[in-house]
Amino acid sequence: MAAAERAYMFPSEYQNEKQEDRYREPLYSSAYPKRKGEEGRIRRTRERPKQEDKTRQTPAGLTVTELRQMVAITVAVAVLLMGILILNAYAANIQCSINALTKKNMALEDEIDRLSMQIDESTSIEQIESYAMKELHMTYPRSSQAIYIPKDKKLMDNFSKILRQKAYGKG
Prior knowledge:
Layout: H1 2-7, H2 11-15, H3 20-24, H4 64-122, H5 125-134, H6 153-157, H7 159-168
């Protein structure tokens, strides 16, 4: 404040160093008279000066706006990381289900292969012949039991009728 008061003094007064009192007294007079003991004090008003958030600094040397931005970014990154963690857990759960189904599928394929081999073994000519002779007591027909059908065009038209007559002896 003293520097501001000096700015209103005449330049000639600066040159005269012996007049120290003039340096302290401004050329203009205040609207309010000074009280005793108030010369070194700064007058405060009831209203405090308003500080913007951008100029007010935190102990870390950041403005409040920068601090809010950093907190918002930190929260956003935390939410993003939590989302990635949840998706990773979900993917691991799905992979576990896939592995279980793959094991079941392999067991079923092994059973299908085993059953296919059994079918191939049981439908072979040797197996059928053995089963027919042992279980069903079947034998090969003798020459007297065989029926021979001539290759005649007329006979081929009524094949079922001829076969029935020869097999059952009905005429």
